[in-house]
Write a structure and sequence with these properties.
436 residues; 14 strands; 38% helix
Length: 436
Amino acid sequence: MAKIILSINAGSSSVKISVYKAQTQHQSPEQLVETQIAGLTAPPSTFSYATRSGAKRIKNQPLAQNINSQDEAFRYMLDHLVDDEATPEIRNREDIVFACHRIVHGGDYADAQIITAETFHHLEELTDLAPLHNASALSIVRSCVKQLPKTKNIAYFDSAFHQTIPEHIRTYPIDPAVARKNKLRKYGFHGISYSFIARSVAEYLNESQEDLNIITLHLGSGASACAIRKGKSLDTSMGLTPLAGLPGATRSGSIDPSLVFHFTSDAGKPSPNSTKDMHISTAEEILNKQSGWKALTGTTDFGKIASAAQVDDADDFSAQSRLAFSIFVDRITGFIGSYFVSLEGQVDALVFAGGIGEKSALLRARVVEQIKCLGFEIDAQKNEDVQRRHADEKQVVVDVGSEKARFATLVCWTDEQFEMARGCVSDQRFWGEERG
């Protein structure tokens, strides 16, 4: 009998669930449904729902009822799944065997964990390290335990992939006693995505993952870079929190730490947006939610920024878009250069991933042009045609590099939801154990 798996990704303003079924450990999970409720913090909330068979499709439908929390969103989607005749595999809640949860900050956990009372308490303690991310995920875990008491809840951590980062790279040069007590070190994030990318690229290159050396860019509204050596994380741009490294839609990325105290005298005070479950300072609010492309251009839409950056107009939006675009290219290429040296020039490929990495041909072209001196070169036609080739060839990884280049340039359509579901199937700790 097939086992039903929910892969859950909860943000502060949305909840996304992908539903899979798996027959055996020797088969990849098969997606049945993808559903999302967005706009939890900006009503009205909208509901999207699509079966893989195409039998049912709802897109951004405004919800008449008031749904403004992760718990309410989860209950609504769960009821819809059970009641939907297009998904006969889920006739009642007890049919759901696994619920996988994307947890951004897992502290020192090196792999996925079954969520017990002890695990949950430990994750609550870590919330202060990532209040903007872990709080919403833990809210869904609570809801899951309540709504699906027979389901096995499993936490997948964005930080786990980076536990292999060497001590001299992950350590900050501060008082060691304070660092140990407060768990202050580089953790890194987007690890579920990097795990998917490393496995997929190794398969594409027909290479063992244990021999894979790549520089990977996960570029979306949150963006990061990662150096992967012998299939494992060597270094990554994010640090103690996802704020470090590359700028994003609303994040500043790495800046002089003292800047925020010159920016506002209220830096250390609690943010007005703090809640009983999410304690953030004014500084965290400014640098995580009021910076990045939004601060520079007034929009978080990178597509609009890239389009405006190509226009040589004197208006403020075009000028600021060119600046934001150039900043992003500069910061990305800086990490590529650093990681190229860390990998001692032994690089199998540069990989673009994430929504922007997949969609922005202009960004890929500008980045690769900037690092041409390292031996990378893009094929203009392949680069412009990448979306069609991906759709037609049904390939997860597509080559956009020039045949003359020393190193490959690839685009990977990463899938964190699938990676969690695959983990449930492939990990004997989860698949083989009877649920409660």
